Structure formats: C-alpha cells, structure tokens
Q: What sequence folds into this?
C-alpha cells in the first residue's frame, strides 16, 4: 500500500512540475503585427497577412515590395502561423521552398529572437513581422487588424 501511495505522489508531483514548466500557450490576440515605420498601411486583415506570408501578396498599396520576416520557431511563431496564416510551420516552410524553387519570390528572413526581428524591421523598408506584445518595439509601427474589410 505504501508503494502505491508513493507512486501516486511521485506521479502527481511530475504532473504539477510539468504544468509549471511547460511554455504558456500563445493566443492570436497576444501577437502584434509590425512593419517598418515608413510602410503606408493603417490596418490589415487576417486574410491579407495570410497572403503576405504565403507569398501571394508581394506589394504594398504604394507598389513597394513587401519583405517578409519571421521567427524560426517557438510558441509565438506557432500561434502566428496557425492563427494568421492558417497552416503549420512545416507546411509554411514548404510553401516558401516552392516559392524559391520556382523563382517567384524571395524567402523570408528568419530570426531566432524577437528583439533581432524588431531591429531588422526598424532598419529595413517594406518589412513586416510579428512579435509578442511584451517585446520592446521602438522604431517600428504596430498594425491593427481590421477583419471587416
């Protein structure tokens, strides 16, 4: 009996520890779309963001080129790809491989850290990316979503 109780307590301890150490789930509302400060866009729809990240929308309204940047991996990247692009990270990588292979576009610049992504967007015209709201984002423009368009 003591053995069973110890086993149950050990299992319960592992479950609690797992809950405390697992990464928090990121919701779509917890993601900010950011662009270079000179991009002349006041809002975007989720459909437009999806088109940009799938490589089917390549120009801003003023006909300047859209330069896509994204995170390599992590909860923010996974939530963005699922909720804004409507696919999985693996499928999105395959989309961009096809775009590059067919010569119809330039692949996104990939960053390991949100801070580096923000810095790149601040320094490069026409760029778009995404971050969590807790990431400092001085020098870039936050674009609200307008899904009524």
A:
């Amino acid at each position: 009996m003591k053995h069973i109780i110890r086993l149950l307590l050990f299992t319960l301890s592992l479950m609690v520890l797992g809950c405390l150490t697992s990464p928090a789930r990121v919701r779509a509302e917890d993601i900010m779309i950011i662009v270079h400060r000179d991009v002349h866009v006041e809002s975007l729809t989720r459909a437009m963001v999806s088109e940009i990240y799938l490589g089917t929308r390549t120009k801003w309204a003023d006909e300047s080129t859209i330069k896509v940047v994204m995170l390599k991996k992590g909860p923010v990247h996974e939530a963005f790809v699922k909720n804004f692009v409507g696919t999985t990270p693996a499928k999105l990588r395959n989309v961009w491989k096809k775009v590059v292979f067919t010569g119809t576009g330039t692949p996104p610049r990939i960053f390991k850290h949100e801070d580096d992504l923000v810095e790149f967007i601040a320094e490069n015209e026409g760029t778009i990316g995404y971050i969590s709201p807790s990431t400092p984002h001085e020098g870039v423009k936050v674009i609200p979503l307008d899904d009524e368009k």
Notes: The mean pLDDT is 86.
